[in-house]
Amino acid sequence: MDDHNVAETGRFEVRAFGKDILVYISGNGLLLLFTFLQSLIIPKYLSVAGYGYWQLFNLYITYVGILHLGFLDGLLVHWAGKDLNQIGGEIKPAIRFLVLQQLAVIIPLGLVTYLLLQPPFQLIGLMVCIYAFIFNLATFFILTTQAIRQFRLLTVLNVGRGFAFLALVVLIFVSGHLEYQYVIIAALAAYLLFMVALAVSYRRYLQGNNSSAPSLASYSKKNINIGIFILLGNFVFVIFWSLDRLLVNSSFTIEQFAVYAFALAMANIVFVFIRAIADVSFPHLSAAAPEQRTRAYQLGKRVLILCWAVSIDAYFPLAALIQFYLPHYTGSLPIVKIVLGTMGLSSLILILHVNYYRLYRKQRQYFGIGITALALAVLLVLIAIKVMGTLESVAMAILISSFVWYIINELSLKAVTGESNVTIWKSLIIMGCYFACFWIASFLNSWFIAQMLIYAGFFLVISFGFFHTDLRDLLLMVQRSRNRRN
Description:
This protein is an all-alpha fold.
């Protein structure tokens, strides 16, 4: 049986899922290496203010996904778990609508940006508009590739994008013109190459007769109706995750914003691998039977907690490197330690909650809960800024808000996940134990290798105490999957 022919069996194929995860994470590991190398150059040789403007660009581009109005999310739900020959005829009308819709939205937005903003924000705003067009077209091909589970192709091209950006940054550095404006242009060029390469891989399906306007309108309306609340729910997540940077940018200096944004960039290293799991999991879950999804949720949550707990040990060598190589960013380290806890909760929300709300068409419920969590986060961050006025208090406010959002999601999904109140709180206690031991290890010794070893010891004790049964079940599931194929 083909690894990707899971739709016919109604079974969550552990082997196929594991292979896709391995390929995609391996690619993201290379991408992470490229990101790490360019992060040694950009913050080191840009001024703190210049790095702040570069991070402002990165902040604003997180919002450009809303400009497709849910059309792409509707396509992913409609296409997930299908083969390319089943959806190939829809690719051309879909991309045709997307191009027209993006031009209709982005051109007026660019004009408004140019007329209302002042330098340097005027240039940053125009670059964001250009990026929005490239990004949403690339996202179409990315979602198509994810839907048909061709993760090898996506991995190769994504690694190529990371390498292209790194090469351009090195070229700018060698030429002696490393300024934030040129770094932004390099990011645009790398993503443009990525989008073109994806389009070329689907060129066969972009040819042929044009669809009629009425059918195109009907097709786009259907997908937007499906995807709009998925989009809004995801946008709430994006706003939630970027809220602290928005308010820090408006309440602190550009240099303080740079320090806070640097902390998030470092913590985001954990998120690279976790995001890869999210991208791979939805198409496989869509093809699985409901009872398999329930088991996948319960086991998947344990695995994700373990992955997060392992990944935070990377903080210690990273902190040592920052203290040695980027001493003007050492003020970000206490923030990183807090944000790593938020990363764990946000990862579970993104990978498990978002996918299960989407699978069971509970997008409106997810949107309502997300708005509630966002309102709480706004309140707590504003209190943190007004009362304490420190960057650490802002990070703590987001951590508390993430905790509340996670709990509400878990309770609202109990009917489809099979989780009880006891198991929900047990998972949180386990995460709390890992996080507390991480903090304890950071205070027990000042040498990063000793800190890593101390935390590793805590990790083994906690993991064996709580997860030995789940690890055994995971190994048995993999073995059964291998036996079925043999």
